[in-house]
C-alpha cells in the first residue's frame, strides 16, 4: 500500500544511503548524482523516473514497481531486480554497471541496454524478446530458458548462449558474435 506520493520533482546530489524509501510512489521524478547505497525501496513505485549517475550498491527493491524507469551512468552492482513487482515492469539502462545483478523470471520485452557492463548477470527464465544489447559486455551472463526471440546482440560482446535451452527465433547476431553461440561445442573459430 503506497502511503506517500511525490510527483515531477528533481533530486540532486542527495545522500539516501541506508534510508527507508518504502511505500512511496515517485512519478515523473529525476534523480541526479544521488547515493542510494544500502537504501530500502521496498513496496515503493517508480513511474516514469530517471536516475543519472546514481549509486545503488546493496540497495533493496522487494515488491517495488518499476514502470518506464531509465538508468543512465548508474552503479547497480548485485541488484536483485527479480524481487521487483512484475506489474508493468519496464526498465532501460545506458552506460550502467549491472555486474552480478539478477533479472530471473522478469518479463522485460523490448528492454534497451546500451554501453553497459553486465558481467555475470542472471537472465534465467526472463522474457527479453525484442530487447537490445547495444555494445554491452555480457561476460559470464547466464541465459537459461530465456526468451530471446528477435533480441539484438549484434554489438554485444563476450556472451555465451546455448540455442538448445533458449528461445532464439529471429534473434540478431553479427558474424563476430557467432562464437558466443557455439561455446558449448568447444570449437576453435579463426
Task: List the SSEs and their pairings.
Layout: E1 4-7, E2 10-12, E3 24-27, E4 30-32, E5 45-47, E6 50-52, E7 65-67, E8 69-72, E9 91-94, E10 112-114, E11 132-134, H1 179-182
Parallel strand pairs: 1-3, 2-4, 3-5, 4-6, 5-7, 6-8, 8-9, 9-10, 10-11
Which labels suit this protein?
mainly beta; elongated; 11 strands; 190 residues; 1 helix; seven-stranded parallel β-sheet; four-stranded parallel β-sheet; 19% strand
Describe, in short, the structure shown.
With about 190 residues, the chain is mainly β. The protein has one helix spanning about 180, and strands at about 5, 10, 25, 30, 45, 50, 65, 70, 90-95, 110-115, 130-135.
Describe this structure in words.
With 190 residues, the chain is mostly beta strands. Helix content is 2%, strand content 19%. The chain has one helix and eleven strands, in the order E-E-E-E-E-E-E-E-E-E-E-H. The protein has one helix at residues 179-182, and strands at 4-7, 10-12, 24-27, 30-32, 45-47, 50-52, 65-67, 69-72, 91-94, 112-114, 132-134. The strands form two sheets. The chain has a seven-stranded parallel β-sheet with strand order 2-4-6-8-9-10-11, with no helix packed on it. A four-stranded parallel β-sheet has the order 1-3-5-7, with no helix packed on it. The protein is elongated and about 50 Å long. The termini are far apart. The mean pLDDT is 92.
